[in-house]
Amino acid sequence: MSTRVAIVTGGNKGIGLAIVRALCRDFQGDVYLTARDVGRGQAAVASLSSEGLKSSFQQLDINDGDSIRAAAAFFKDKYGGVDVLINNAAIAFKVADTTPFAAQAEETLKTNFFATRDVLTTFMPLIKAGGRVVNVSSFVSCRTLNQCSPELQQRFRSEDISEEELAGLMQRFVDKAKAGQHKQDGWPETAYGVSKTGLTSRTSVRGSRYLYAGLRQARGLGQALSEADSRVRVGLEGGPQELHVLLGEAGPLPAAGATRGAAATGGRRSGFI
Questions:
Q1: Does the annotation count 32 as an active-site position?
Q2: Which keywords label this protein (predicted)?
Q3: CATH label of the domain that carries residue 39
């Protein structure tokens, strides 16, 4: 039987590092954290090693197509595929950041939605039978959706929205932000929120499973291990119970709505109610 492998993108700090730490303790197989910066990635591996936890590093810049393809080729050659892929890599501008909103919108959507889409497109053919894909989103996506116009809300909640239409909506937000017309077009003033609304919706379109970050509101998920650079936190200190939220045990993941922050199954939008 081949060795199982789990990958966490953006795993060198914050939420990603917390997930890697939990996987190192409880996942039966090899655990890889990826990061854009080689030095920071290797430093994270060394830090985990000092805790007695074994992990490995693979360079991956999700905004670089060549980097995505190189990482995919590495895992295909070494493991014949991937058992667990956790798409955690993302960015969020600070509230006090003075970068023009148009630039924030373009950069945030490029990374959090379009680059994550590219990772999924490349890695999905490598996911082994019984494997899991987790897209780390945020409860902020629910609040953002409720701030959108009725027309946009209807499309995001639609059961027949396609990947192409969704990508078009994300690009429309960026274009309107550049023109200073996003509010008139029905969008709220939050690039991060829109990016996570798009990611959550895309996960549902693909019938994948997803996890909401911001687990501090969920009972029994332990205290936050770390505060990420963005405004979300994750609690994974409890080990197997919390890891089940990500990966489940044998069989399907917990039912949608069982716990806020739990992974949802199939095309059900537990966050879009």
A1: no
A2: NADP, Oxidoreductase
A3: 3.40.50.720
User: 98-130 pLDDT, tens per residue?
Assistant: 999 999 999 999 999 999 999 999 999 999 998
Is the residue at 74 inside a domain? Answer: yes
Question: In terms of Cα–Cα distance, which of 45, 53, 56, 58 is closest to 26?
Answer: 53
CA distances, 149 to each of 112, 118, 154, 199, 255 (Å): 22, 28, 9, 18, 29
* Cβ–Cβ under 8 Å, residues 208 and 48: no
State the residue range of the domain holding 42. Answer: 5-247
Tokens of 89: 């890599």
- Looking at residue 159, its pLDDT comes to 81
Length of the chain counted residue by residue: 273
Instruction: Please say if the pLDDT value at position 255 is more than 90.
Output: no
In a domain, 259, yes or no: no
What is the number of structural domains in the chain? 1
* pLDDT tens readout for residues 58-92: 999 999 999 999 999 999 999 999 999 999 999 99
Task: Give the residues across from 264 on adjacent strands.
Answer: 210
Of 32, 192, 210, 212, the active-site residue reads: 192
Can you tell me which residue has the tokens 């950069």? 107
- Model pLDDT, residue 268: 35
Cα 265 to Cα 78: distance, rounded to the nearest angstrom = 29
Angle at 92 between CA 87 and CA 93, to 5 degrees: 165
Q: Is residue 94 part of a domain?
A: yes
Question: Is 269 a member of any domain?
Answer: no
The more confidently predicted of residues 227 and 203 is 203
Give the span between the Cα atoms of 32 and 244, in whole angstroms.
18
Which tens digit of pLDDT belongs to each residue from 27-45? 999 999 999 999 999 999 9
